[in-house]
Amino acid sequence: MNSLKPTEIISAHDITLIDAYWRACNYLAAGMIYLQHNPLLRQTLTGEHIKQRLLGHWGASPALSFTYIHMNRLIKKYDLNAIFLAGPGHGAPGVLGPVYLEGTYSEVYPNKSKTEAGMQKLFSEFSFPGGIGSHCTPETPGSIHEGGELGYSLSHAYGAVFDNPDLIALCVVGDGEAETGPLATAWHSNKFLNPARDGAVLPVLNLNGYKIANPTLLARISEEELTALFKGYGYQPFIVEGDVPLEMHKKMAEVMERCIVMIRDFQTQARSSQERPARPMWPMIILRTPKGWTGPTELDGHKVAGSWRSHQVPMSAMHENNDHIERLEHWLKSYQPEHLFDENGQLIPELEALAPVGPRRMSANPIANGGVLRRELIMPNIKDYGVNIAQRGVTQMSNTQVLGEFLRDIIRNNPTTFRLFGPDETASNKLSAVYEVTQKAWMGSYLPEDEDGGNLSPSGRVMEMLSEHTLEGWLEAYLLTGRHGFFHTYEAFAHVIDSMFNQHAKWLDICKNHVAWRAPVSSLNIMLSSVVWRQDHNGFSHQDPGFIDLVTNKSADVTRIYFPPDANCLLSVADHCLRSTNYINLIVSDKQKHLQYLSADEAAIHCAKGIGIWPWASNDGNTSATYTSDYDEPDVIMACCGDVPTMESLAAAAILREYLPDLKVRFINVVDLYKLQSADEHPHGLSQTDFDILFTRDKPIVFNFHGYPWLIHKLAYRRTNTQRLHVRGYKEKGNINTPLELAILNQIDRFNLVIDVIERVSFLGSRAAHLRDAMKAEIIRHIEYAHTHGIDPSEITDWVWPYA
């Protein structure tokens, strides 16, 4: 890559042309909000031409298209590879305008042709039932960021450029968006950007002064304070300020070109040097423009442009006020559409020539439709990592440690298309094996002690930062631009990304079901570790499995939830998830040591089924793993889902087998949570017939669950005789507890499970009174032991499955 050598920045003639192109963008933006008919104002504007409901946001649109078309100029001049991200919410009019003018929109949606009729369709379907939304939704060509949920534009921009060395992500950050926590932390992404191997982000902070109804914070501080803030973030800020269009075009052209040249110089220097790359002071632009720039300046005695009144629809009550209609016509005609579009409604050739062509258009860049670039991971064979099971339920090991070895070799095999994301917890979550082949990405300064196990490197593929927001944003964009990744975090802290998960799930749902031209992207894989049941020192604040509930609220077309009970099952699940596309896969697996139950082959079958009987843990007939005809109807179903609940359920089954040997217990383990849902509600759900055969139609079910117990009732509410379903799970009981004590407090422990079975199986009654009483005594004894010794007794910590 060569440095860029700018010639004359921009001529007066070119400024005139780019201003005309911008007027065309602004005309389209306003037309989308207001017009249903008469798109080129070839008739006198009347109420019949105007939408009954005026929806959309005008305020940020002019600055968005202004920035977009100035990048277009540089794309053409330097043959740049670039994409555009619009951070301001409801900013679609300012993006759809240039996307339509450069032809991509008409290529994707032929009925929106570059004609008067096509323009009318574009206008009439914007923010209209059956049409498109006012964000940069998945339907928008070139978009990888919707903008509706403020705060994630910058982290998405950085995620897109990691491992895309020639890509520039032009990211407009709204000044309202800049007040959010996720955006504030995302500025630090520049500490992870390696100029030797990554692309670059050019942030443009648009200070238009107002949010919906209030001033914005950054617009009301001094220039000295503002520039000091961004210098402190590690940027070199350039300010473009004003409201006179021709003057602003000249300023923006000079500043943006300077920024692009700086970026290429930084990259060229890093890529030609043998030294460890230094972290540059990357450029960024502060674009200070009036809100609703070029729109109505005053209406009904109130200031509009340059105030909060232009945030959404600057003029309303169009059908009740003829004066407003006349004012709207005057506003729209101020852009001189008759000089911009020919008699057929197409942009005049002189202006059409300003846009890039083919895939150099930001709206047609294949990187923004990453599925077309995606290549399958080179995956190792999971059987090479499988745990040898000499005897079930005896060997203990960390499930996630085994996963770490698997991820290590995925990173080795895919050195430019896979990254591991987590908030400073890679070692804590027992994934340290990855450090055998890579390090943590780090562009900051180094201290001598960092060389002793710090695992820091500019080329590291482990992305760690104590901001789940930023990590999630990086990963989402990394996937949306055609790559692969894996995100892990503590279970209780996954709630930090609740809204980001929501938005990505909605994005995938729209892509899968409504936007056929978007190719499938790699699934978003999230692993929750350091789970609710193993918070010995963190206590109550870290005990929250509620992220699982959140996932179940989203579309069945895109969400999957897995609870592998041991290492071989975790390997099988991870292998499946990393190969999948267009899903959000949630994996819940604790990092501490756990008993191992299934061989690699058995785990593959069990996980493929998603739910199944463990014959060796059951005694409702033959206890071998081979089918015979001597099974009988069980007296009770013991079901479990999750690693800790599985162990406690097994321990309860062992007690029942010892003290109530005539009781027929069927033991069922659930890996795929959605198997409990009806088949007509989730594609993974069991049919009613399958469910009834597995769980019977009338026998009591004692279900031990990892999360909140009511979630199981929600999923299984349509099953036969649901009153027989008794669920144990986390009930917000706990603090600094031993593992068994925490289980007891929430009644997922072996003793409470035995009591539950006794109370649910009608014929037991007083026959099991002695055992029930003994279990109550065991509960008291173990709580007292925990409070005296601070640990659980060895009979608990060393418990193994007693039946070969």
From TrEMBL:
It holds the Pfam family XFP_N. One of its GO terms (molecular function) is aldehyde-lyase activity. Residues 11-372 form the Xylulose 5-phosphate/Fructose 6-phosphate phosphoketolase N-terminal domain. Keywords: Lyase, Thiamine pyrophosphate. One of its GO terms (biological process) is carbohydrate metabolic process. The keyword Lyase applies. Its cofactor is thiamine diphosphate. It comes from the Bacteria. PROSITE patterns: PHOSPHOKETOLASE_1 (PS60002), PHOSPHOKETOLASE_2 (PS60003). Residues 591-801 form the Xylulose 5-phosphate/Fructose 6-phosphate phosphoketolase C-terminal domain. Signal peptide: none annotated. SUPFAM superfamilies: Thiamin diphosphate-binding fold (THDP-binding). Its EC number is 4.1.2.-. HAMAP family: Phosphoketolase (MF_01403). Belongs to the XFP family. This is Probable phosphoketolase.
